[in-house]
Structures are given as structure tokens and as C-alpha cells.
């Protein structure tokens, strides 16, 4: 998202000032990250609002409300994904508890349990990332609602004038914004498909592990029966000798 905003600001030749600079690849300060991203979003929206008002091609409040509606849909979808992940994690934890409670101490079974635990931890990390994205969307949604009031004031003439841009520059900036938004949605869809594929693989591995455990239990029962038969034959043989 930061790259998207930087590309838009650069394409529209919008100057950045008084914004915190945060390295998203290393920083853990989510508050500063959110402040930086919201500041860049505000610059983009202010440019669109004031430039549109100055050329009578206003980027009106309805457009912003449409964006809010899109963000709400994304948020709803994200919450649904998060809920599904939480349910899956709970099922995995239940499966692990059952496996740990069993008396099967074979090396292969223990290795499979450790593998399943590792996969569960990865799923829990992904849940955390989705929750962080959910908070980002909520913050962005609140910011957009605030921009509705600003846009209404701008339309009524209360907003201050800024250096004008040509119609061509405005159209190019808006087209660029639309293109970047489409790219963001495509990337989100790819991430969702990759996640679903990963969860399907995890389920298959869990089913395989359960089958392996059942097979091991069956083999143990068969060996016990064989030992029992051998023991009974030995007792009979000893009795005959006597």
C-alpha cells in the first residue's frame, strides 16, 4: 500500500511535507506506520478534491462514499477470512490435543505431531497479519469519512484554493489511482487464493497424519495378537512335554 501511495504522489507531483518516515520492512511501530500511510492518503485525497473543485470537475462526496463502501466490503471479507482462520486454528489445536493424549510414542508419529504444530503456528501468524490489515482498513475508513465533510465544505466554497492542474493532469492522476487500486485488489485476490491452497494442503496433511496414526494402531493390535498366539502355543507345547 505504501508503494501504491508513493507512485500516486510521484505521478501527480504532490509534495510530501511533515510526514513521518517509517521503514515498513524493519519497523514494528504500527502507530507510526498508520500515521504515515494516512498522511499520504490525505495528501492524495486533498489534491483530488481541491483540483476537481477548481476545474468544475469535482471529485464529489459520492465518490468518497463509494470508496468507503468498497472499504467496508473489503473489511467484511477480511473479517470472514479471519473468522475462518480462527475456526481452522481451533480445529488444529483440538487435533493436536488428541494426538498428544494418545499412547502412540513412535518416532514417526511424534515427527508428524511436530510438523502439525509448526503448521498451526504458521496459521496463527497469518491470523495476526489479517488482524493488522483489518485495523488498517478501519483506520482508513474513518479517515475517508472525515474527508466527506471536507469535500462538502470544498464544494460550498469554504475550501482554500491551491495551484491549479490541467484537466489532463487530473484525469491522468485519477486514472493512475484507479489502476493502482485495481492492482491492489488483484494482489489481494492472489494472496487469498494462495492462502486457500495452503489451508487445503494443511487439511490434506492432517488427514494423512490421522490415517497414518490409525494404520499404526492397527499394526500394533495385529502384533499383539501375534504375540498372544505365540505365547499360547508355547504354553501348550510345554504342557505336552510334561
Q: How do the strands and helices of this protein lay out in sequence?
A:
Blueprint: H1 2-11, H2 30-54, H3 61-101, H4 107-155, H5 167-241
Helix pairs in contact: 1-2, 2-4, 3-4, 4-5
Polypeptide structure, described:
The longest helix is centred in the C-terminal third of the chain and has 75 residues, at 167-241. The protein has 242 residues and is an all-alpha fold. It has one domain. It starts with a helix and ends with a helix. It is 83% helix and 0% strand. 12% of the residues are buried. It contains five helices and no strands. The radius of gyration is 30 Å and the shape is rod-shaped. The model has no long low-confidence stretch (mean pLDDT 74). Keywords: Coiled coil. Residues 75-233 form a coiled coil.
Brief sketch in words of this structure:
The protein has 242 residues and is mainly alpha-helical. The protein has one domain (2-104, 130-198).
Brief descriptors of the model:
single chain; 242 residues; mainly alpha; rod-shaped
Mean pLDDT, all residues: 74
- Strand content is under 5%
User: How would you spell out the order of helices and strands?
Assistant: HHHHH
Q: Low-confidence parts lasting 5 or more residues at pLDDT below 50? A: none
Q: What class, by secondary structure content?
A: mainly alpha
Helix content: over 70%
Secondary structure tally: strands: 0
Shape: rod-shaped
Distance between the termini: 88 Å
Amino acid at each position: 500500500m505504501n508503494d501504491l501511495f508513493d507512485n500516486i504522489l510521484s505521478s501527480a507531483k504532490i509534495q510530501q511535507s511533515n510526514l513521518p518516515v517509517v521503514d515498513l520492512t524493519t519497523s514494528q511501530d504500527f502507530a507510526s506506520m498508520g500515521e504515515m500511510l494516512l498522511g499520504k492518503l490525505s495528501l492524495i485525497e486533498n489534491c483530488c478534491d481541491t483540483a476537481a473543485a477548481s476545474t468544475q470537475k469535482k471529485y464529489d462526496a459520492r465518490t468518497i462514499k463509494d470508496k468507503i463502501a468498497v472499504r467496508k466490503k473489503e473489511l467484511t471479507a477480511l473479517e470472514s477470512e479471519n473468522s475462518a482462520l480462527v475456526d481452522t486454528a481451533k480445529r488444529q489445536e483440538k487435533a493436536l490435543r488428541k494426538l498428544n493424549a494418545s499412547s502412540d510414542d513412535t518416532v514417526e508419529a511424534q515427527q508428524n505431531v511436530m510438523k502439525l504444530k509448526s503448521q498451526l503456528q504458521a496459521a496463527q501468524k497469518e491470523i495476526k497479519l489479517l488482524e493488522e490489515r483489518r485495523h488498517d482498513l478501519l483506520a482508513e475508513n474513518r479517515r475517508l469519512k472525515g474527508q466527506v465533510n471536507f469535500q462538502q465544505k470544498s464544494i460550498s466554497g469554504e475550501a482554500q484554493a491551491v495551484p491549479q492542474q490541467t484537466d489532463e493532469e487530473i484525469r491522468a492522476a485519477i486514472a493512475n489511482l484507479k489502476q493502482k487500486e485495481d492492482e491492489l485488489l488483484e494482489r489481494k485476490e492472489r494472496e487469498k487464493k494462495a492462502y486457500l491452497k495452503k489451508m487445503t494442503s494443511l487439511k490434506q496433511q492432517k488427514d494423512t497424519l490421522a490415517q497414518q496414526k490409525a494404520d499404526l494402531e492397527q499394526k500394533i493390535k495385529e502384533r499383539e495378537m501375534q504375540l498372544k498366539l505365540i505365547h499360547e502355543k508355547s504354553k501348550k507345547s510345554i504342557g505336552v512335554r510334561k
